[in-house]
Amino acid sequence: MTAAALTSPGAVTPVVTTTPLADAPDLLALLPPAGALSWVRRGDGLVGWGEAARLEVTGPRALAEAATWWADHSAGLDVDDRTGVPGSGPVVFASIAFDPAAGTSVFVVPEVVVGRRDGVAWVTTVGDVDPAEVMDDAPEASPSPMGRLRYADGALDPASWCATVATAVERIDAGKLAKVVLARDLLVTADAPLDARSLLGRLAARFPDCWTFAVDGLLGATPELLLRRTGRQLSSRVLAGTAPRGAGADDDRLAAGLLSSAKDRAEHALAVDSLVGALDPYCTTLSAPEEPELLTLANVRHLATDVAGVQRRSGPRGGAGLLELVGAVHPTAAVCGTPTGAAAALIGELEGMDRGRYAGPVGWLDARGDGEFGLALRCAELSDGDPASARLFAGCGIVAGSDPAAELAETQAKFAAFQAALES
Fold first, then answer.
1. Secondary structure of the chain as H, E, C letters
2. 2: pLDDT confidence band, cut at 50, 70 and 90?
3. Quick one: 52 and 114 in the same domain?
4. Exactly one of 65, 224, 267, 372 is catalytic; which is it?
5. Which of 152, 271, 348, 363 could form a disulfide with 240, with the two C-beta atoms 3.0–4.6 Å apart?
6. 381-399 residue pLDDT tens
7. Share above pLDDT 70 across residues of the chain, in percent, rounded to a whole number
């Protein structure tokens, strides 16, 4: 049974106003320490705060129900949009469960959204709010000290997790499946409440080529774009196959080794094929390069492929909304495995934890149907009950030939992305 709830703090006014800004602001610096909403890359994107409306939904039709809710909600608004670019006007931020049928997905319509795109900046407000006051009331950008950090194992300690990897390799060798993505969690507690704004700023500074996101306490910097829709144009960035960084000549050696690795190339091909196969029925054209490129980040490198397509106008799959497209492509082999059903079942058997919204789609959608969704990776979920605690996540793709110790090291390198923000 699907459980859906819409809450609106106070009376919801249907007036939404988007006003151009003369100067492009530092988006992340505008955020409050709590309740931050973010989707920012290299200074462009969207941030928001406050809640004009909220939906929490679970069940096999979760995304379809969310799409209907958003269409009905946005259709009832009185919109004055003086910018008219993707992300202006009414916007909903979304963080979707890894398994939407079992986990809770969260959709938040902010009271204030500030956007920046290709040199154009704007502020969108709900209700009788003066945009000038919104910008003038931005909080002071002063980092909050978090004090000493204490880490603890999550669902599985490192030795137990390595044993699960070995079990997964045995299943793969037996022909049960081709790939499974196994994740682990790490618990952290600080002396003081964790400041989401400070963490997002540090993540953005360290990983400028990632999308720095925050929705309902889940925040991180993801390098993986699941799906972007602008009009009928669709695009995605597929990542699979990872190598650590090194120093000097060793860094070059590791990069060359990743490009030439048969194991990593096979893992990457499975992820690309998964995305393309799911998206192809919705497109008139769809293209993906034959060879992956290297995406170099501060802590790791990935094999990367950018996929682009044009959505069908009509036909059996024509006119699909972005949430339907997201539901069609998720979960890809990059976060689940191949074949999907067998990989998902093995994750449930071996991982020993509830992923929640980790590795699920995260991003935003506007009233025109444009939007961007990444995958919630390199992230942490702030604790509802203890503002000084969080749960970090990291995972890696397991294929034939995977070495448990090497896979453990890969998760530790991925944990380091968020740990760097905590420990700066």
1. CCEEEEECCCCCCCEEEEEEECCCCCCHHHCCCCCCEEEEECCEEEEEECCCEEEEEECCCHHHHHHHHHHHHHHCCEEEECCCCCCCCCEEEEECCCCCCCCCEEEEECCEEEEEECCEEEEEEECCCCHHHHHHCCCCCCCCCCCCEEEEECCCCHHHHHHHHHHHHHHHHCCCCCEEEEEEEEEEEECCCCCHHHHHHHHHHHCCCCEEEEECCEEEEECCEEEEEECCEEEEEEEEEEEECCCCHHHHHHHHHHHHCHHHHHHHHHHHHHHHHHHHHHEEEEECCCCCEEEECCCEEEEEEEEEEEECCCCCCCCCCHHHHHHHHCCCCCCCEECHHHHHHHHHHHCCCCCCCCCCEEEEEECCCCEEEEECCCEEEECCCCCCEEEEEEEEEEECCCCHHHHHHHHHHHHHHHHHHHHC
2. very low
3. yes
4. 224
5. 271
6. 999 889 999 999 999 999 9
7. 95
Is-catalytic flag, 170? no
Say whether both 7 and 102 belong to one domain.
Answer: yes
Q: What is the mean pLDDT of residues 53-77?
A: 96
pLDDT bucket at 424, cuts 50 / 70 / 90: confident
The amino acid at 91: V
Peptide bond into 316 cis (omega under 30): no
Range of the domain at 357: 149-211+224-423
Q: How many domains does the chain have?
A: 2
In a domain, 350, yes or no: yes
pLDDT of residue 141: 58
User: Is 263 one of the catalytic residues?
Assistant: no
Distance of CA 365 to the CA centre of its chain: 13
- Mark which of 76, 104, 135 sits at the end of a domain: 135
What pTM was estimated for this model as a whole?
0.93
Q: State the amino acid at position 365 in one-letter form.
A: L
Active-site pick, 51, 179, 267, 381: 179
Question: Does some domain include residue 167?
Answer: yes
Does a structural domain hold residue 275?
yes
Residue with tokens 């934890």: 353
Residue 402 domain flag: yes
One domain for residues 101 and 199: no
- Using 50, 70 and 90 to split pLDDT, how confident is the model at 3? very low
According to the model, what pLDDT value does residue 143 have?
62
Tell which residue, 343, 410, 409, 402, has the closest CA to residue 173.
Answer: 402
**For 359, phi and psi rounded to 5 degrees?**
65, 10
302 neighbors 293 (Cβ within 8 angstroms): no
Q: What is the pLDDT of residue 140?
A: 62
